[in-house]
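[[Sequence with tokens]]
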Amino acid sequence: MDPLEPELRVIKAAEELAATLGANDNHTVAAAAMDAHGVIHSAVNLYHFTGGPCAELVVIGLAASLEAGPLVTMAAAGDRGRGLIAPCGRCRQTMLDMHPDIVVAVPSTNGPHMAPIQELLPYSYYAPA
């Protein structure tokens, strides 16, 4: 589905933060997420050879530390003008586990596309509750 105005604001927040990253190889991706109250939270990844956290995971942790409640929209953007990027598999699984109703922005040939996390992770593993 095409993004609505609130979802476009999340994409813009991620892209604007990514544009500030410059040439720092430790921070190459920015993510933004909107909570159920309409507040946008933003964060960057922390690259490390041990597999440091992706920006999506950092923003999930940031929102949790602020007791933001459920996240409803997520977008990530790459540094150096890469624009909107799709989440990796680990982030997809984490979003499904932590925020199963979240809608995620992904790039497509026709511009940004919004997809429920379940569509991005078909035949997914569900952790026992």
Summary: Helices lie at 5-19, 55-65, 89-98, 117-120. The chain has a mean pLDDT of 95. The chain has four helices and six strands.
